UniProtKB/TrEMBL annotation:
Residues 19-39 form the Zn(2)-C6 fungal-type domain. One of its GO terms (molecular function) is zinc ion binding. It comes from Phaeodactylum tricornutum. InterPro entries: Zn2-C6_fun-type_DNA-bd_sf, Zn2Cys6_DnaBD. This is Zn(2)-C6 fungal-type domain-containing protein. The lineage of its organism: Eukaryota, Sar, Stramenopiles, Ochrophyta, Bacillariophyta.
Length: 50
């Protein structure tokens, strides 16, 4: 059997979802910070226009 099988990797790694809900729903890149750079920029832009 091939040990480099991609069907069931057993390398001990765990995939974590670091993106915030807004970036996940908009399918944009999230930097993982809270609040993330995208959300902060949107907030600043929204408040600057008001």
């Amino acid at each position: 059997m091939n040990e480099d099988s991609t069907e069931d990797p057993d390398d001990g790694s765990v995939a974590l979802c670091a993106s915030c809900d807004r970036c996940r729903s908009r399918k944009t890149k999230c930097d993982g910070q809270r609040p993330c750079g995208n959300c902060l920029a949107k907030y600043m832009k929204k408040n600057k226009l008001s």
